[in-house]
Amino acid sequence: MIDLHTHSIFSDGVLIPSELVRRAEVLGIRAIAITDHCDASNLDFIVPRIVAVCKDLNLGSRIKAIPGSELTHVPPARIASLAEQARSHGAQIVVVHGETIVEPVHPGTNRAALGADIDILAHPGLISEEEVVMAAKRGIFLEITARKGHSLTNGHVARLARKHGARLVLNSDAHEPGDLITETLARQIVLGAGLSRDDFERMQKNAESLL
Fold first, then answer.
1. pLDDT tens digits, 30-50
2. Across the chain, where does the E strand assignment appear?
């Protein structure tokens, strides 16, 4: 199991990175990205610290910790430049907080994200077919999420991704210990989105390709 979207106390999570990674390791997760919420106000502060702690944790853990960033509620016109900044500060996984139906995300966020140098468009809500085609062409992964609220549109995302050949990943979007998921629950979430056991295996291979 690989989880490429989690949060620590560097944004709105409740765990320090060391405990987040250790709890994930105990659950059998073999790689985890710490992708705290960022915008222009904190990106240069948060990402370098995540990079440093992941380097330290990788010296003594079986699990691989990956430094990342989730650009969140950023005006669409700023997404591309902030993604570049996240990379320059060492983010290996760049996620954009997509147009979930349970938060007032800027309209146009999905489209702007899909035109930028990012890896994952998280919980993209009622993403359009045209945007899914963009994701497929640009090799940007769409997220099936375990996060309450955001997961309400998993079925929609899964259906369009399958139709247009967009690649999917499954993430927890964990903010606290109880949000981390086991492989058993992950498989159930995939089935609940209308996908298959084979799709789960493909999603894990997709996540592996980002490592």
1. 999 999 999 999 999 999 999
2. 2-6, 31-34, 37-38, 64-71, 93-97, 120-122, 141-145, 168-171
User: Which of the four pLDDT bands, split at 50, 70 and 90, describes residue 68?
Assistant: very high
CATH number, domain of 42, equals 3.20.20.140
Residue 78 has a pLDDT of 98
User: 13-18 contacts: CB < 8 A, separation 24 or more?
Assistant: 13/174, 13/175, 13/176, 14/175, 14/176, 14/177, 15/176, 15/177, 17/50, 17/53, 17/54, 17/57, 17/65, 18/53, 18/57
Indicate whether 119 pLDDT > 90. Answer: yes
Domain extent at residue 9: 2-210
Q: Which of 65, 67, 31 minimizes the C-alpha distance to 169?
A: 31
Specify the 3-state DSSP secondary structure of 49: helix
Structure tokens at 137: 């062409």
User: Quick check: 165 pLDDT over 90?
Assistant: yes
Q: Which parts of 83-206 are beta strand (E)? A: 93-97, 120-122, 141-145, 168-171
Q: Indicate the residue type of 19.
A: E
User: What separation, in Å, do the N-terminal and C-terminal C-alpha atoms of the chain show?
Assistant: 13
Q: Which two tokens stand for residue 159?
A: 């259906």
- Total structural domains in the chain? 1
